[in-house]
Amino acid sequence: MSPVTDRVKANAPVDEFKQQMLALIPSLRAFARGLCGNRDLADDLSQEAMARAWAARDSFTPGTNFRAWMFMILRNQFYTTIRKNSRMTSWDPEAAERLLVTPATQHVGIDLADLERAMAKLPVEQREMLMLVAAGGMSYEEAAVVTGCALGTVKSRIARGRGALTKMIEGDVNMSPLTNPALGTSAAKIAAPSTS
Amino acid sequence: MSGKRPKQPAEKLKKPRPELAFDPIAAALRELHDSVAAEGIPDDFLQLLDKLDDAPTNRRPN
User: Which residues does chain B have within 8 Å of residue A103's beta carbon, measured at their own beta carbons?
Assistant: First the structure.
């Protein structure tokens, strides 16, 4: 059988389980990036989650929510990783440089770099809910399954997170140096946002 | 004289749907998500899918 790479490029059929994972890769990467703010780490987390899901594929019940199952594995992988590596930082200087030149979104009038910096300052439990629901379009119920929280907890974390983001972005002024409460690390490596 | 009222076109009977308030934070978050999702799938993800057949199978993901 041809490798997946060739089959995908040739639009040929791929194993159904792999096909489902393949379809989720963009969302998994986006969720992971939102959690840790680091492209390379996010991709590592996503790939590790895919490998774990594949190894545990017999435990997945076909017809149930594959997306929620995959996101749950990715989320667990994220928490396992940050527990194992307490010195891990989520933001690197190069990423910060790239963020500083990210243009403001034309549609919503909010600078995406500002948004990412504000997201990094949120407690991870609020950030993950915002990434799942507001950014990724999951339902509250689905986010509750992924995070193992009650529906009310999902809603309150989203409301608190959104409120905090609004305050930070509207207040705007000095959003750095950053401290990432998710990882308990100083992210002061981040350059101050340009005020020009 | 009939008491029946004339039928109106279905569109006129429908209640107008309230416009959802635009939430710039939610819109920016979606844009953030979509900007990553639109990057395309890196080759190493596809290579991982190729290699998975050789990986051992567990019963639980964690």
Answer: none
